[in-house]
Amino acid sequence: MKRLTVKNPKTRRLLINLLIVLFLAAGTFVAIQFAKGYRPDLQNRSLSGTGLLNITSYPKSARVIINDKLTTVTDDKLYLLPGSYNVKIEKDGFHPWTKTILVKNELVTSADARLFPIIPAISPLTFYQVRNAASNGDGTKIAYVLQNSPQSISNGLYVYSITGNLLGSSNVQIAEDSPRDYSKALLIWSPDSSQILAIFTEKTVATKTTPSTEKISSAFLLTTKGMNPKSMSDVTLRLPLIISQWQDQFTKINLPILNLFPRYMVDLLSHKAVNVYFSPDKEKVFYTPTENISLPVNDIGRALPNINSSPEVRDLTKDQTYLFDIKEGTNYHLPFATKFSDTAKTLITTATSTPSASLASLRQLKSQSDSRVTSNLSWYANSKQIIVTNENGVNTVDYDGLNLTNISYVLPLENFITSSPDGSKLILLTNINQKPDTYNLISFDLK
């Protein structure tokens, strides 16, 4: 038998070019399918679809255990068959992180774990005795009252800058403790953190017909830049104007953030919820509805190829606390939230036309930027976790309500706890290895 040959050079070049095109097309098809996650299944002689699981953690190089099998270390990417996987990320000296993750065909699913140390290093930020701590709106500064210092002139009201100060000390004294005891004042930060309003109260004498009530006795407006004079003017008569100005500033802060949310959430957060607190990145919010409400179907999540697999709760119960994620349109129940006081924050979206200088309106101002006034929750700096205080001490939890992790069994005085802006530490007003009635600002290292 003679071998078939192509004698025409043009025909031969055409066949070669055709084979090259077919080879490139086949290679491109295989590359695309490989990029989508398809892998050869030798047993069934076919291509099986997979999904990509992107696993990250802080700190890195943590062990990844999938379905009870040690699989890899973070940070890594794994191609897995579609399905549900029990993922555990652990590292020596840190609390483990666990979650059931749904991997979908041809899609990327993320497992991002923030691991917290089992025994965090602690260091004092203050000594002697601290009372009446209050953090500002963005969590960069803490006002506190220092007492029992060996030098009486050092006692008084201070501002501590958490982010540090390259030009000097992080602690700046802004008032002496005489002639006023600021530990007994209601301290309210201005929206721009440039001033602190100190409100002093007194109780009226009860009679047979009227109970004892608390009323404003004096008020002082202090600058946070440096020492204020002892002979400050009482601003009690100016309180309505100050309240109106600060409400206007809060309106300018809240409205742009609020308008990022779906219309149904804008109505809910503005009129049918209390204790509304936005995350530092403004992409999440936790809130407490004042009536039973059903949220619409999650159209945002439907439009996305893949979202967090944690179960949602869209039928809201009055007085329960929930968290809404603007990027995925998801809503989660936070069952561990509790009230801390009778004050319930109402989100300020407009300045009151005729503000009254009442203690209730002043406590509303304080609650605008400090969630610890109203509940046992506050945002962790990275916006992915929430700080929770309960009978077990201080805890962190993922924004979807999973991985409740104990940081310390000590409890903060007056519910004061705040996260540093970079998330490297928690600062508590608490007692560690001191006399029972002695409290100081203590830093817990979370790195």
From TrEMBL:
Looking up SUPFAM superfamilies in the UniProt record yields: DPP6 N-terminal domain-like
* Protein's name according to its UniProt entry: PEGA domain-containing protein
Q: Which domain of life is it from?
A: Bacteria
Instruction: Identify one Pfam family in the record.
Output: PEGA
Q: Where is the PEGA domain?
A: 51-115
* Source organism of the structure: Candidatus Collierbacteria bacterium GW2011_GWC2_43_12
